[in-house]
Amino acid sequence: MDETRYTPPKAVVDDVDVDPVVPDAVFKKIRNTLVACLISAAITTVLILLTLGGNRVGPLSGIDAIDIVFVLAMAFGISRKSRVCAVLMFCYFVLSKYLLMKATGRANGLWLGAVFLYYYAMGVVGTFEYHKLRKG
Known about the structure:
mainly alpha
């Protein structure tokens, strides 16, 4: 075949840019954080429904529905592997637990809080690892 200016260019196969492989452990950290967010939103929903029904369980009120919306928004961001959402969720959880302990004067649910804190921290680690591996 002759080389005219209308001949299409030929691709060089060796120059194809391949996305780096992200280990399953990184995806597992992100997925576990997403599940922790959904469980936290579900627990908060149940407590709010109990509080609104007249059974005062704790220092919850109807305004705490904002908490559910925020946690679900962060869960969506974490599912999209957002570092900002992972860090915001971690900081929000720490701040909310601090304010709750300060308001009640008790450290209720410390063990469960530690479990959630661990998963939120792993979410931060997982999202940062994901983006580090994607950049190469």
